[in-house]
């Protein structure tokens, strides 16, 4: 009997048939099934929570014969990312991932993956950076690479994790992009909770995702090239400018990918970059990334029932940053309240990273709303719908007063 | 009083002369400051002078007439290279045969940055006339200055302190008193240990060791420097990848052969075809010949001497000073062809070089 006994028939159905099937699983399971459908060639693994879930499921899928891929257990995270970089260079579709300090230990290899322009897809199982030790979610691990050419996307459901993984390969491997994608998944709240989601049939995935083709950059004895030469000041500006162009191209490629995804799979995410929720007439709009969306949506519904004009905007793609969408959805509000599950110590207003970026984007808005920032949920602490209601009430009060009394609020911090 | 800016360049061999060049550059700065002027110095960073023999550069900029505050040199700070130099100092005369820096700039003439009528100061035992046989001609005149002296070669961790710094300072004071006066040089050397010895060396050079020759446009060997085409971000391969070399092909854009001050010369009559030179050469310089010999592609040779060291037959691969050969700037003699075409002539030529060879290993003597 195979390890995947509960799912074996369902997996066979999507591999052989043309219909999607429903399963129960964690966010990392969902991602592992996407890797099966994307038919990855090489993955390298080194255990750390909460990323470890995906490597466990992938190893089961390989052991049970659902996926043919090289599964390389690395000596540590830095090796892990070096392995996939080299595999990607010779034409293998690769998957890798880590969490928290594991992600940071690999940082040198992570940066050369993007500067060498290999379309690796990685899971960043978001986890607080040590010290002190904590398994729970914070977004600072992923945000460490926000400036070095990684596309960064946050998902909030298992279904979105699966779908976004397929989209990530399509975007990363597009010749106009050729940059790696980091898929962020909140530790525990998504990586270790079981939800129902649908696995599409592989036959449809093949229509959506063309084979990985490096073109003239494929390292092969019949295509002799030199990768990552020493170039010094003569070339570096041009190489960085190429990355800048690729990142800007990604905005267009992402739109195309979501459009085709909706056509082929019948699941339409609407705006690919952000998920607006009851924002049309909202006076107060809360902004966040990841699973915090769920309780905030509940709070929006409860406050709307009482007649409060509140809404929520979830940021999916943080890199490339959805500047135009941010301006479009937020500049009509009286107050924007950004919830950061991260921090950026010493940043312009000592707030979070998302808050700082949104302030920057809104500088170009014709109407600039008031902006407040909640730092909360650090180290995996809950943000419940009651917490979200409290935050909305502070934001509504700000709207009534017409001025910001405290820019950055450490929500729930013990004094 | 108006401000005058003087720029000096020191070209030296990586590793072997790193401390020598640094001490000379700092010495010029100290001396300039002791005369009440501002000065600063910087390396051509991309050269990586930790690499064996690479022609590397130091620069010194002096501002006269504005006091000793460095602010006057703001425009000269944070540079990779200056646009022009007034004085170029070459610490190893074999560097006259070309400068290929670590950046992809091709083989540059030794006086590429020198202003018209500038000074090219070379430490050498040869006279200016002899050295002109190695220097490319140019369109503008310059002054070739020889400071008579042994080539000062240390290694990575040592500084021979053999008087080269003092002699060069004395020579600068002699031929470029506007830049540095003998008084300034003396004051600087007196601030060091063994002041009398050092001052005497500088004065000796000032009085007796300097030969100056005006060089007219067109004098020298023919060589036209073409700066390489650097691709734009739209032209280059993604990620800065570059087309690789085909089997048996050598890189036309980077040869590296200017890194040597000695080269291997091979006595093919004694060669046993053992393959060790070919196998051990770190730069894959040896081309196998149809009859089983190994011919060094000298344009790519860095002069490390490993081939001579591993050769099991005494006096079969010898390392000989570059100035024994009137070639360079990318075009080198073909030893194997010379030998094939005239074995007797080659034998005589080899024997004439043998006494001049560097002793590589006592084991083999």
Describe this structure in words.
The complex is a heterodimer of chains A (415) and B (365). Chain A is of the alpha/beta class and 415 residues long. In chain A, 40% of the residues lie in helices and 18% in strands. Chain A contains 14 helices and 16 strands. Chain A has helices at residues 8-16, 27-38, 52-63, 77-89, 100-105, 107-115, 140-143, 158-172, 202-208, 236-265, 293-305, 323-330, 353-362, 385-401; strands spanning 21-25, 42-45, 70-73, 94-98, 121-126, 151-154, 181-186, 195-199, 225-226, 274-277, 284-288, 310-315, 317-319, 335-340, 370-375, 408-410. In chain A, the strands form three sheets. In chain A, strands 3-2-4-5-7-6-13 form a seven-stranded mixed beta sheet, with helices on both faces. In chain A, helix 14 links the parallel strand 15 (370-375) and strand 16. In chain A, helix 2 packs across helix 3 (52-63), helix 2 packs parallel to helix 8 (158-172) and helix 11 crosses helix 14. Chain B starts with a strand and ends in a 12-residue tail after the last helix. A seven-stranded mixed beta sheet of chain B has the order 2-3-1-4-5-6-7. Chain B has helices at residues 18-34, 128-131, 164-175, 182-190, 195-209, 276-280, 306-310, 335-341, 343-353, and strands at 4-13, 38-43, 55-64, 85-90, 114-124, 142-148, 210-215, 242-243, 262-266, 286-288, 294-296, 317-321. In chain B, a hairpin with a 5-residue loop joins strand 10 and strand 11. Chain B is of the alpha/beta class and 365 residues long. The A-B interface holds A 115-117, 178, 216-217, 224-235, 237-239, 241-242, 245-246 and B 46, 80, 102-105, 230-233, 236-246. Strand 9 (225-226) of chain A pairs antiparallel with strand 8 (242-243) of chain B, so a sheet runs across the interface.
């Amino acid at each position: 009997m195979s390890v995947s006994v509960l799912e074996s028939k369902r997996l066979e159905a999507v591999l052989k048939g043309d219909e999607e099937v429903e399963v129960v699983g964690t966010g990392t399971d969902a991602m592992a099934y996407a890797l099966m459908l994307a038919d990855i060639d090489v993955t390298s693994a080194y255990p750390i929570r909460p990323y470890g879930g995906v490597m466990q499921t992938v190893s089961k899928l390989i052991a049970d014969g659902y996926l043919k891929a090289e599964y390389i257990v690395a000596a540590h995270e830095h090796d892990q990312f070096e392995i996939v970089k080299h595999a990607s260079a010779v034409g293998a579709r690769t998957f890798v991932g880590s969490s928290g300090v594991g992600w940071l230990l690999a940082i040198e290899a992570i940066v050369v993956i993007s500067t060498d322009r290999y379309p690796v897809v990685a899971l960043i199982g978001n986890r607080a950076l040590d010290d002190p030790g904590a398994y729970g979610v914070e977004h600072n691990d992923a945000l460490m690479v926000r400036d070095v050419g990684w596309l960064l996307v946050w998902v909030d459901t298992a279904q979105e994790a699966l779908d976004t993984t397929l989209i990530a390969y399509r975007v990363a491997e597009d010749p106009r992009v050729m940059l790696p994608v980091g898929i962020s998944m909140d530790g525990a709240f998504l990586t270790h909770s079981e939800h129902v989601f649908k696995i599409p049939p592989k036959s449809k995935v093949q229509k959506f995702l063309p084979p990985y083709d490096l073109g003239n950059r494929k390292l092969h004895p019949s295509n002799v090239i030199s990768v990552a030469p020493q170039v010094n000041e003569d070339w570096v500006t041009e190489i960085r400018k190429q990355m800048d162009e690729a990142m800007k191209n990604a905005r267009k490629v992402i739109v195309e990918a979501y459009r085709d995804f909706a056509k082929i799979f019948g699941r339409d995410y609407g705006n690919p970059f952000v998920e607006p929720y009851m924002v049309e007439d909202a006076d107060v709009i809360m902004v966040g990334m990841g699973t915090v969306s769920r309780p905030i949506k509940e709070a929006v519904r409860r406050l709307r029932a009482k007649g409060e004009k509140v809404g929520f905007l979830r940021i999916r793609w943080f890199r490339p940053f959805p500047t135009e969408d941010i301006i479009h959805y937020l500049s009509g509000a009286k107050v924007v309240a950004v919830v950061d599950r991260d921090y950026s110590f010493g940043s312009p207003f000592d707030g979070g990273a998302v808050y700082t970026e949104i302030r920057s984007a809104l500088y170009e808005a014709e109407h600039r709303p008031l902006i407040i920032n909640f730092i909360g949920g650090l180290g995996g602490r809950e943000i419940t719908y009651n917490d979200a209601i409290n935050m909305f009430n502070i934001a509504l009060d700000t709207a009534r007063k017409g001025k910001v009394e405290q820019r950055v609020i450490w929500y729930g911090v013990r004094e | 009083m108006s401000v005058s800016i003087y720029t000096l360049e020191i070209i030296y061999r990586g590793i072997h002369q790193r401390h020598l060049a640094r001490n000379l550059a700092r010495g010029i700065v100290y001396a300039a400051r002791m005369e009440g002027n501002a000065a600063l110095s910087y390396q051509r960073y991309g050269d990586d002078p930790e690499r064996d023999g690479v022609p590397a550069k130091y620069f010194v900029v002096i501002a006269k007439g504005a006091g000793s505050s460095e602010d006057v040199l703001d425009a000269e700070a944070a540079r990779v290279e200056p646009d022009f130099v007034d004085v170029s100092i070459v610490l190893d005369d074999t560097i006259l045969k070309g400068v290929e820096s670590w950046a992809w700039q091709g083989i540059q003439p030794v006086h590429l940055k020198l202003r018209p009528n500038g000074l090219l100061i070379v430490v050498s035992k040869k006279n200016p006339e002899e050295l002109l046989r190695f220097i490319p001609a140019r369109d503008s005149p310059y002054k070739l200055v020889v400071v008579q002296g042994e080539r000062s070669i240390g290694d990575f961790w040592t500084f021979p302190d053999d008087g080269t710094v003092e002699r060069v300072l004395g020579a600068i004071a002699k031929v470029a008193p506007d830049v540095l006066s003998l008084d300034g040089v003396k004051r600087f050397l007196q601030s060091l240990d063994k002041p009398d010895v050092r001052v005497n060396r500088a004065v000796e050079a000032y009085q007796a060791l300097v030969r100056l020759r005006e060089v007219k446009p067109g004098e020298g060997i023919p060589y036209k420097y073409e700066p390489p085409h650097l691709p734009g971000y739209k032209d280059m391969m993604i990620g800065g990848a570059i087309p690789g070399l085909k089997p048996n092909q050598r890189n036309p854009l980077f040869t590296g052969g200017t890194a040597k001050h000695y080269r291997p010369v091979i006595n093919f009559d004694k060669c046993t075809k053992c393959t060790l030179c070919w196998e051990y050469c770190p730069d894959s310089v040896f081309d196998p010949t149809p009859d089983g010999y190994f011919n060094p592609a000298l344009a790519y040779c860095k002069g490390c001497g490993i081939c001579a060291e591993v050769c099991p037959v005494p006096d079969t691969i010898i390392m000989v000073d570059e100035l024994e050969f009137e070639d360079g700037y990318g075009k080198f003699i073909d030893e194997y062809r010379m030998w094939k075409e005239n074995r007797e002539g080659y034998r005589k030529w080899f024997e004439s070089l043998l006494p001049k060879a560097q002793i590589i290993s006592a084991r083999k003597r």
